[in-house]
Design goal:
This protein is α/β, with parallel strands linked by helices. The protein contains 5 helices and 7 strands; from the N terminus they run H-E-E-H-H-E-H-E-E-E-H-E. The relative contact order is 0.16.
Length: 166
């Protein structure tokens, strides 16, 4: 993808996030912090257009970072559509990349897994996040992946609130 094409897609994603996902008011964030705005990125990441943009931009960002993961995923629910979009875009481009989901807690029934999907020990992974404030969700996902034997290359976020999560 050319730099110009990437810039156009990034601009459209920003517009879509502003249109669909930014809500003004008085909110308590997952971090416990108060904010005059809330970013419900799922309203963008779960839209058809958002999925298409995230797939293309996610692949471009992985390439720019030099990351070649075997798997992509993160803490449910925010990371799920992002991981699936990037995995689908990779497959459409002929590149193998599967997704996984990290539960907030291991299931109390069935297999009792905390990580679901295509995860396997020893795999190189990129953790994705919809919105980073403090980075706690990404840190939780990294801890789960590492404990299960995965090797984390890095974290890819759609929105960084620039409140210390980087």
């Amino acid at each position: 993808m050319t730099m110009g094409a990437t810039a156009d897609l990034e601009q459209r994603l920003r517009e879509l996030l502003r249109e669909r996902s930014v809500i003004r008011g008085d909110f308590t964030l997952a971090s416990g912090k108060r904010s005059s705005f809330y970013i419900d990125a799922r309203r963008t990441t779960m839209s058809g257009e958002g999925l298409a943009l995230l797939g293309a931009l996610g692949l471009a960002r992985l390439a720019a970072r030099g990351w070649v993961p075997e798997l992509i995923g993160g803490l449910t629910l925010g990371a799920d559509p992002i991981a699936y979009a990037i995995a689908a875009a990779a497959r459409a481009g002929g590149r193998p990349l599967d997704a996984f989901t990290v539960r907030k807690q291991a299931k109390a029934h069935g297999t009792g897994k905390r990580i679901e999907g295509c995860f396997r020990p020893g795999a190189t992974v990129v953790v994705v996040e919809d919105v980073i404030t403090t980075g706690q969700s990404a840190t939780d996902a990294i801890a789960a992946v590492t404990a299960a034997g995965g090797r984390v290359l890095g974290v890819l976020a759609v929105v960084d609130r620039e409140e210390g999560g980087r």
